[in-house]
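re: ur msg from earlier - yeah i can do the zinc ion complex, just paste it... oh wait u already did. ok heres what im feeding in:
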Amino acid sequence: MPAVQLERLETCNLCGSASADILWQDVEDPVCGLPGAFSLVRCSACQLIYLNPRPTPGSIALCYPDNYPSHLPAATGPETMRRRFESLVFWPCRRLYGPKSPRTPPPFGTGRCLEVGCGKGQLLREFQRAGWDVTGIEPSAKAVAMARQAVPDGTIVEGTLETVGLRDDHFDVAILWHVLEHLHDPMRALQIVHRRMRTGGRLLLALPNIGSCEARIFGRYWVNLDVPRHLFHYSVATLSRLLAATGFRMTWTRPQINPSTISSSCAYFLKRHGISLPPLAGRLVYAAMSPAASLSYTMGDGGNMEVWATRIEP
Ligand SMILES: [Zn+2]
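and the outut:
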């Protein structure tokens, strides 16, 4: 297998400062267990946290093995016990924030929706069912084939924002669902998205929140660090700044209900200290952590955040 090539980022992607402090060194891949140890740094000026050095754009694909969870088929079957448990434990946050999947806004006219990094097309399928005209961009050929099956009436293009030609001032909604943190140049990506959208259009983001309680508690053992695939880590403050710099205004945010980031971080912490949990114990940890996760979400704090922003003129 060819080796992953690394590159050093000389200036902060958000503010351009060349000054950064090391936050954690020798952080290992908590999700797939790939070899290698990485450093995360914090910009001295704007506090943006990022991986440095990091895999080059040309070799990052090597960091996504076939067992990467986002690339595996979704779990099937009713899992009745787990669903009942979750609907009970997370009732307060659902009551506050609505259903788990993002609310698709009603189409206005012939609403056009663009998803960057659409993966297998599950979210685009929801938007298409709600009446949206959908377009997806996805770099993985395998995922493109699955997305075309999921949204046969949509337009799914293999490539990236930089390589795919799309019309300017065209889209009413743009989505980056757990994508921004994987990009080598999120500033440029949002600038391109801004050009492709109509004024007043809405941007939907989902991404880890490095400012969350669980990130602070688990620190270098937080699974959402997901090295070396997550290249940037935003808090609400640094994300707001990125959005403002690229012509968007944050309008709404909610914690994403995803307590497995807590139980997986517990399991990873124990594993790094010589204790490997059997699968049943892992489920018990998940169940035990869920009430605390629910309380945290209800208080507005979660390991992942969903954000709506409005496109304004820069
Ligand atoms: Zn900075």
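cool cool. Residues 12, 14-15, 17, 43, 45-46, 48 surround zinc ion (CB under 6 Å). ping me if u need the other ligands too
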